[in-house]
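Students often ask why we bother predicting the structure of a whole assembly rather than each chain alone. The short answer is interfaces. A chain on its own may look different once its partners are present, and contacts between molecules only exist in the joint model. In this exercise we take four input lines together and write out one structure for the complete complex. Read the inputs first and try to guess which parts will touch.
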Amino acid sequence: MISTIDAVLLRILDNQLQVLLWQRPAESEVFASHWALPGGWVYEDTDQTLEEATCRILENKVGLTPDYIEQVVTVGNNHRDPRGWSTTVLHLALIRTSISSITHSDTQWVNVENVLERRLLLPFDHALLLETALERLSTKARYSTLPLYLAEHELKLPELQRIYEIVLGNPLHKRAFRERILSANVLTDTGVRIQGRGSPATIYRYAPSCPVMLFDRMMQGAQTDLSD
Amino acid sequence: MISTIDAVLLRILDNQLQVLLWQRPAESEVFASHWALPGGWVYEDTDQTLEEATCRILENKVGLTPDYIEQVVTVGNNHRDPRGWSTTVLHLALIRTSISSITHSDTQWVNVENVLERRLLLPFDHALLLETALERLSTKARYSTLPLYLAEHELKLPELQRIYEIVLGNPLHKRAFRERILSANVLTDTGVRIQGRGSPATIYRYAPSCPVMLFDRMMQGAQTDLSD
DNA sequence: TCAATAGTGTCTCTAAGACACTATGAA
DNA sequence: TTCATAGTGTCTTAGAGACACTATTGA
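Now the answer. The structure tokens for the assembled complex follow.
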């Protein structure tokens, strides 16, 4: 049995979700040189656990250490790989933009839209895997602080709201959003105020190791098109 | 690599959650004749998908076809099986009591408490797997109609409330519970009223194939000890 | 001065929680 | 008649959604 690990590693750039793709080696038996989700085999001799294997693959093949990794689902069947029965453990990984750029040369960040709208075709069932991981992210964004892992350690609330809106695909109410996030008690006011185009914004900080906090209501988002 | 599927199959009897255990063969290399979670290998020649393999294993080894099966997590590491690296895809399965009894002779239903309180020791990491599956069930019970799959197709609302309370481990408010469940529109009033000790209860019916409906608030349960 | 941005005040609405109440029928 | 059980009425509460408002500062 072919047994692999795949990762959907996401970041936010220019108000868009981007996924990291990895170029399959030119000597691959199938889909040679195609751009795919980064993945690899478990090395039973050196990896103690699946989690360890996932970290190793991301560090070695891609060169990144994401702030957050979560197992999404395991897909196994006899048609996803032309070579025969194949199983993959799919992971969702999030990284903040500021540390996302130093990757290996056989990788590139692409807007997820390009894959979703079939402008960029991925091998195997990787498009479906991407969709599954994105669905997990947007579902959790409705009731948790998970998208915080896409933000910098020091951030402005409007920035974080924008991240949520990108992940959810719809606008949010500024008032409700602020109350919600601040009530989770993961952000501390640094006291710094940053001046931009308008009124100065408060800079908050979150602990890199802070847990994902859960709310007990889902956010629906705004019906109207106003986010402020 | 040893790659298996395991299932936590649950039912409710006598106001208790029960899990189905399966006796490992006497000739097993490890944990021979021990009671364990039912599981088995994927047969790449005959199983088309992981889901198919899961159903086959439950039908062949146990003799049951659960109403609901969901993948929970995949656990892989080098210490869960004394023989070496081992991966298992854990599933949560629910079955209604009335069809749960005709099982193979090398199986038995036991109260989950016996495992959780270490009165009954399971081999490998099966106790941990059981806890993981139970946590998934109780988490989902807080915001979905999932526990309906533990109930009969025709049921009284107080019965269903009791099932939720067993799964959640705490009492619920009758008023809020009724509104919630009925608002999900999965139950239809059969018009039948059943008389028991007290006032006659309305019999509702759910479609065997009805989807798990999600609420957008979590149920907290009652602080006080009243459920009616 | 004006436009863009951050942030607050406050009203409504919905569903959960709290609790008392009525209705029914077996023991 | 009593009491266990099913089911309803209605108030409170918390938080999301709606929307208007003030405050600050760069262009």
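Check your guess against this: Residues 173, 175-176, 179-180, 183, 195-200, 215-224, 226 of chain A lie near DNA strand D (CB under 10 Å from a C1').
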